[in-house]
Amino acid sequence: MKNFKNILLGLSFLITFISNGQILPVRLTTEMAENPLAVVENQPRLSWKLISKESDASQVAYLILVASSEEKLNNDDGDIWNSGRVNTDKNLHIVYNGKPLKSETKYFWKVKVWNQSGKVSKWSKTTTFRTASLESDLNPTWIGAITKADSHLPEGRNYHTATFNREKKNSFINASDSLARRSIMLRKPFEVKKEIKEAIVYISGLGHYELTINGKKVGNSQFAPLWTDYDKTVNYNVYELSAKEFQKGDNVIGVLLGNGMYNTLAERYTKFFVSFGPPTLFFKMKIKYNDGSEEIIKSDGSWKYSKSPITYNSIFGGEDYNASLEQKGWNRKGFKDRDWKKVVIQEAPKGVLRPQTAPPVTIQKQYEVKTVKELKPNFYVFDMGQNLSGFPTIKVKGKRGQTIRVWVAEGLNEEGTIAQGRSGKPYYYDYTLKGDRVEEWTPKFSFYGYQYVQIENINYKEDKNKELPTLVDLKSNFIYNSAGEAGSFSCSNEIFNKTHELINNSIKSNFQSVFTDCPQREKLGWLEEIQLNGPGLMFNYNLQTFLPATMQNISDSQRENGLIPTIVPEYVIFGGDFTDSPEWGVTGVILPWMYYEYYGDASLLEKYFPVMKNYVDYLGTKATNHIVSHGLGDWYDYGTHPAGYSKNSPIALSATSHYYYGAYLVAKASKLLGKMEDFEKYNALASEIKTAFNKEFFNEETKKYGTNSQFSNAVPIFMDIVEPKNKEAVMQNLLADIKEKGDRLTTGDVGNRYLFQTLARNGENETMYRMHNHYDAPGYGFQIKFGLTTLTEQWDPRKGNSWNHFMLGQIEEWFYQSLAGIKSDPEKPGFKHFFIQPEVVGDMTFAKADYQSVYGKIASSWEKKDGKFILTVQIPVNTTATIKLPVAKNSEIKIDNKKVRAGYNEKDKKPILELGSGIYTIECTI
Would you kindly state one Gene Ontology biological process term found in this protein's UniProt entry (predicted)? Predict the structure, then answer.
């Protein structure tokens, strides 16, 4: 119960400011973000969470003030908007309804609420938001070292297609040292004559940039801005700077540019070759002075550039740095830039300039060397203890001009050297010393998935060989998106605990600009992982501002005929089923629904309804009598056959079921949005597809679907395609196959979720337990026994390629929803009302999980002890929960040591309790 003691302490700390019986709004957000710097909407939505000392607390009214200055807000002057008292329990997505908002303007707001007893709260803390700049206001000028025309980079969309033709490949090669590929430094001196109030920076450096003011890095982003299809959308970042960032007199803006996905290189390893143009920069800084005047500094022809010490940078191939080429103080005042060249004005990227509203990628953790082996004299392999997505930091000393080559990899060869054969080779980092005492270096524009580091021809810590450089220190940097974690899970079963850890290390490794498949070989946004792992992703991470960016990328990548490709952004076109597979494309339909269910926010359904509808219409053009027959099917399904295309189950069964599911969800969206004509059309279409599916794939005599595989029978049950009269028989066929296979799965990337949830939702959690509580393949336990720290692409890591994939991680949904029992109510999305209905399975003695919902923390912790079942729950203010207890109808039930009479659910055969907000300990006799 330690977890819940911490919950109580944290809650007590928060509510020490609340008077007895009151309620307090906290964690105010605008468009789901705290203090956002680039709100696009003219009528942004305002939200807050609530805390209270009382149980069963709720909001009955609110009053919002929005002001043009903090001073006015402190005086309760809502000169921009005073909502007046609004009688409602709604505390999420309140649409701003004040004076028209100006672009590039900061606003201040606060809220107070009334509770169920009519008592008014104190004012919340002040929060802010800035409105985004219109593109016409930005009036961007793009600058760099060379124009696109002079760079001779391949032009046209066809260049974005993959090629493995070596003759064609060679024609694409541009030397990495050329200005078309080379990392460059740009600088702009400016003078400050007056006292600065604040400065706002708008910047997009493509492919990636690092910005400094007077030599100090601005922000903590890695690989900014986030990846997009640069022909459709170009992200820019916004930074709010205080006066202390500047100095009276001379100041310098410095920008370092790298290639990223904008401009890949053919040297060393690369998955594909693509270029949207040479490295380029857009910059605008608006300085506001204390006297009310303003000054704007922009990217223009007055800037200068020079080649940077980064002599090679490729998102796929690695990075080289020559410290002897450093120009000390290049981004500070007093530097003589007479040898630098004037920038050229470049062609702007084709995409629409949009503010990046998704969180940045940052360095989240650092690992020290765990073990080191000297395979032969001065030849070292370091185990960093964790497979991850990132790059090393090295500290070295030696002679000027000496070079250290750093190889990284997920695994080792038999002789103990690093193995890149599965993950893409050659990939390495070269550092050339300047010969100045101990030197420290961290790459900036390339990352890889690795656990092991190999360095040859060095001393390690001690200067044994005076002719070789010495590695003084080595660290491993784990990078992933800074969206933040939303939940935690643990239980009495160590296989499940370690599985949870494996999966989340893989999710984090692939939680970059987009959700990638792997952090080494491809780094591509294969879509199916997002929807098939969607509930697990949302329980574990705060995706409120990340998923809207994902949907923008999906919208950008949708073809004119409605096709949503398998990878987004579509930097490479693989063709055939690897471009067009319904299980992947339907993510554009499923994701807005998941977002609505978990966050109570219909904005993605509203904005991307045409995307959803057009995709279903596209599948209709590929169907014959409502049967769709193309795609990858249940990719990587398990068996003795090689992994790849679905072998156990018909591809047409998979494709058609997802066509049905897409039509069904578009019909639901139509109804929710009041588009009744569309509802009638897609509801009828879904019914017709269901009829065709059952006619094509269901055997009335045997009650089996397709090949009677686990996927074949599970997916129609999960999607409610099977007729109710046949459901139990199909379920028994599914269970019989699982038993025949020794309680082992035969599903794949697509089928796992449908299998797991079909069992969980139909009272077969004991079967789920047996299927996963072992150390054999297929199963998570085999990977644990293998000694891995991340989830792999195949159940047997020796057969697969990547050792850092999260596509098989669908069991996370079961951990949270079944073992801990935290389950949303579809009728009241966003967990306004929810269920806590834990499953006690196998020999488990406890399980606990918490989830930071949009209303506040939800927690469920149960244990079996001394013949009793003890459940502690936390229910956020302004929500309610139905507790379904896994005990007999006649069990004695106490809440906080007081006997209560529970209701009874005849369907589930479980006692139930209806509770309002608060923390409760429920004790039942078993």
Answer: carbohydrate metabolic process
Residue 99: give the domain boundaries: 23-130
Residues 550, 466 within the same domain: no
CA-only gyration radius of the chain, Å: 29
823 in a structural domain: no
The mean pLDDT of 715-729, rounded to a whole number, is 98
- Which of 120, 119, 98 is closest to 109 using CA atoms? 98
Q: What is the CATH number of the domain that holds 448?
A: 2.60.120.260
Spatial neighbors of 78 by CB under 8 A, at least 6 apart, are 64, 65, 66, 67, 72, 98
Integer CA distances (angstroms), 106 to 36, 199, 799, 884, in order: 10, 12, 55, 47
The CATH number for 88's domain is: 2.60.40.10
Structure tokens that stand for 833 in this block: 């009302």
Q: Are 520 and 802 in contact, with CB atoms under 8 Å apart?
A: yes
Any idea what the Cα angle at residue 387 is, between residues 384 and 392, rounded to 5°? Answer: 55
Q: What is the pLDDT of residues 672-686, one digit of tens each?
A: 999 999 999 999 999
Task: Return d(Cα 518, Cα 409) in angstroms, integer.
Answer: 13
pTM over 0.85: yes
Q: Which of 81, 89, 87 is nearest to 129 (CA)?
A: 81
Say how many residues make up the chain. Answer: 926
* 354, 369: one domain: no
Q: Same domain for 688 and 806? A: yes
**Token pair of 497, please?**
């605990």
CA dist 879 and 692 (Å) reads: 42
Going by pLDDT thresholds of 50, 70 and 90, the confidence category of residue 691 is very high
pLDDT of residue 411: 96
- For the chain, the distance separating the N- and C-terminal CA atoms, rounded to the nearest angstrom, is 19
CB 811 within 8 A of CB 825: no
169 — pLDDT class (breaks 50, 70, 90) = very low
Query: In this structure, are 646 and 754 located in the same domain?
Result: yes
Q: Residue 869 is part of a domain; what is its CATH number?
A: 2.60.420.10
Instruction: Report the domain count for the chain.
Output: 5
The per-residue pLDDT for 174 is: 53
CB-CB neighbours of 6 under 10 Å: 11
What's the pLDDT at 155? 61
552 and 612 fall within a common domain: yes
Contact present, 173 and 267 (Cβ < 8 Å): yes
- Per the prediction, the chain carries an average pLDDT of 94
In a domain? residue 118: yes
Same domain for 80 and 213?
Answer: no
Q: Give pLDDT, residue 21.
A: 55
The percent of residues above 90 in pLDDT, for the chain, comes to 92
Note whether 813 and 753 are within 8 A (CB).
Answer: yes
Average pLDDT over residues 436-444: 95
Residues 96 and 237 in one domain: no
3-state per-residue secondary structure call for 797-835: CCCCCCCCCCCCCCHHHHHHHHHCCEEECCCCCCCCEEE
Q: Does residue 38 form part of some domain?
A: yes
For 11-45, write each residue's pLDDT tens digit.
444 444 444 558 999 999 999 999 999 999 999 99
Q: Are residues 94 and 196 in the same domain?
A: no
Q: Which of 71, 105, 130 is the last residue of a domain?
A: 130
In a domain, 403, yes or no: no
d(CA 188, CA 297): 9
